[in-house]
Amino acid sequence: MISEQNTNFGPIDIPLSCSVFLEPALKKYAHNIVPMTNETNRFIHEWNLALMDILKKSQYSVHLGTMGRKLLSRTIRMKTFPVKCVETAKNVPLHSLHYAIRFSESMNFLDNKIKNNSDIKFVDLGCGFSPLAPMIQARYNIPDVYCIDTEPAIIDIYSMASEKVFGRAPTSISWNDAKHLANEKQLNTITAMGILHYMPLDEQVSRLKFINTNFPNFLVEIKYNNNADTAGDNVFNLKRLQKLRMDVENTQTLETTMIHNSLRYLHKFMCALPGHRYFLANDRSLFLSR
Known about the structure:
alpha/beta, six-stranded mixed beta sheet, globular, disordered N terminus
């Protein structure tokens, strides 16, 4: 398994682990998440094969740290390696459950939005190596699908993987581009999972306010912890959350959906890992949606 000792992270290591561990996580936690179709599972499998093939090329090794190189080499050598990590490696079962919940909730959110609105213009903020946007584009043949990531190597590899699996790729844009498109009514739907808590709180609040004002449809994850002793950086506490509540419109709707979404999240977590209380004692996810 991947040891935590002597491990450094390259800029694409964590996005790579998210994608590689997503596939076995969706199977392991299938009874605890929104059901995935066979089509979805096949797409993710082909996506990971494409990532492995691209990352074998020497020009991308500079972007891999110790963990990423181990994950890549062992997955290429032994196809069952990601499955074994999700089953038994330290912290991987916990993190992979996050990946499975985030992905399945995002797919469910977008499926429902698209079924009720044929004019969805969608962006995935902080796409990493998630196959979410290309899969939605492939399933519904939506022309206006975009992705945002600040790491150029991630976007290059992401675009190549999408071309390999699907024949085209979502359009890469910046956050400023997304703001302009939203202001021009050329974007109306956004997902942002596992990304905002990497930003300073002021930046998170600024983006949340913009999203609330300019995107009719959104699913956004933030981190919450009211215990100062265990709270990580860039995490909302009760005071900050209440201030955000007072600073934005439609708080009643947002608060209701946040409670509903978060209770569903905690229920899924408790059913999947009944002996694990990390999510109660430390930073937990809150999902804002409309």
